[in-house]
Amino acid sequence: MRADALRNIERIRTAAAAAFAEHGLGAPLDDIARRAGVSAGTIYHRFGSREGLIDAVVADIAAEKLNGAIAAIAGDTPWQRFTSYVMALGEAQAADPTFNEVVARRIPNAPALRAVNDRAVSHGEWLMRAAQADGTLREDAEAGDLDRLIWLNAQAVALGGDWWRRALGFFLDGLRRRPE
């Protein structure tokens, strides 16, 4: 690829990252093109579609946010580690509307974004299994429940305010196994 084409791609990626951070994944492509100093046609030529651009630009950012949530896991027990992970994901969702849209699977056919989502659920599933093994998490909880929890939290975050914390607390209380 020519040097000018590579520069265009990098300018598009930088402009898209800024636009998505400001306006979410629905940021107008014309705005991104204007910021990058290219035509919208150049974006389509280089990335194929809006989804292709989002996948190319946002996946790395989302993976960093997920890594932050994983790094924030704390606690002495499997239950504490599981709940700290869920709350750290919630914090990341509330702090970054673009990450919130990603984990809500708004762009379900973007392979790189899907990989980030799948990793978020997979890591949570590992924590769930540990909590189930020590008897603190309901035996009937499944990875799909965590996926839906992340999606539900995205909807609560989108409503604004801090209600999402209460909603996650209620959900986690429902997942906790109580002694008979």
List the helices and strands and how they pair.
Blueprint: H1 3-23, H2 29-36, H3 40-47, H4 50-71, H5 78-95, H6 97-103, H7 111-133, H8 143-159, H9 163-175
Mean pLDDT: 91
Helix content: over 70%
User: How many helices?
Assistant: 9
**Major sheet summary line:** none
In the CATH scheme, the class of the largest domain would be Mainly Alpha
What is the string of helix and strand elements?
HHHHHHHHH
User: What is CATH's topology name of the largest domain?
Assistant: Tetracycline Repressor, domain 2
Radius of gyration: 19 Å
Task: Calculate the terminal CA-CA distance, rounded to whole Å.
Answer: 66 Å
Number of E-type strands: 0
Protein model, in words:
This protein has 180 residues and is mostly helical. The longest helix has 23 residues, at 111-133. The chain folds into two domains: 1-48, Arc Repressor Mutant, subunit A, CATH 1.10.10; 58-175, Tetracycline Repressor, domain 2 (Orthogonal Bundle), CATH 1.10.357. The protein starts with a helix and ends in a 5-residue tail after the last helix. The chain has helices at residues 3-23, 29-36, 40-47, 50-71, 78-95, 97-103, 111-133, 143-159, 163-175. It is elongated and about 65 Å long.
Short recap of the structure:
With 180 residues, the protein is mainly alpha-helical. The protein has 9 helices and no strands. The protein folds into 2 domains: 1-48, Arc Repressor Mutant, subunit A, CATH 1.10.10; 58-175, Orthogonal Bundle (Tetracycline Repressor, domain 2), CATH 1.10.357.
